[in-house]
Design goal:
- By secondary structure, the chain is an alpha+beta fold.
- The chain has a domain of about 100 residues: 2-Layer Sandwich (Alpha-Beta Plaits), CATH 3.30.70.60.
- It is built from 3 helices and 4 strands.
- A 4-stranded antiparallel beta sheet has the order 2-3-1-4.
Length: about 180
């Protein structure tokens, strides 16, 4: 089994470029990738966006992102050829190629370690194993620590009758004079 590496290629095309020009540039990238027995797994055209800072005379550009994977022995030559072509093309303002397979592998290991630790802690507390949730966690809020779960039905408190005291009024005492 031959190992593969993954790279992300993002390039910014001048905002004056037409969709046909961007498609032509993407076709050139696809040709280079296929020539080196690699493949583009995902392509995203983010469209025209404002740049973080001015590059040359441009304040905005058309962003295109590609996720490329290929065999280890050929990707170095492929990446250098893609970079060479993007460097000489006047339509391209900026480009960046980043190896991402290691980043994905590290993130995957961290996620599996967290799930193992969570399962171990649940077992130590005597709780049943965690069941996969169908709902997204953002749509379902779980109760915080030391907070009682909220109930859907309102709970009525028992009514207690307190005796009503009548207001006391002082009656004037008449003084009686004897004599």
């Amino acid at each position: 089994m031959q190992k593969t590496r993954q790279y992300e290629l993002i390039y910014i095309v001048s905002p004056e470029s037409t969709e046909e020009m961007v498609a032509d540039l993407q076709t050139q990238v696809e040709d280079v990738v296929s020539r080196f027995e690699s493949k583009i797994e995902n392509t995203e055209n983010w469209g025209k966006r404002k740049l973080a800072y001015e590059i040359g005379s441009f304040n905005e550009g058309i962003y295109v992102l590609n996720l490329i994977s290929g065999p280890i022995d050929k990707v170095a030559a492929m990446v250098s050829e893609i970079e060479r072509r993007l460097r000489v093309d006047d339509r391209v303002i900026r480009y960046l190629v980043v190896r991402v397979d290691e980043v994905y592998r590290v993130a995957e290991r961290a996620a599996s370690r967290r799930s193992r630790d969570r399962a171990r802690r649940r077992q130590a507390r005597g709780l049943p194993p965690e069941v996969a949730q169908v709902e997204s966690e953002s749509a379902h809020e779980s109760p915080k620590i030391n907070e009682e779960p909220k109930t859907e039905t309102p709970v009525e408190e028992p009514k207690t009758e307190t005796p009503v005291e009548e207001p006391k009024t002082e009656t004037p005492v008449e003084e009686v004079n004897n004599g």
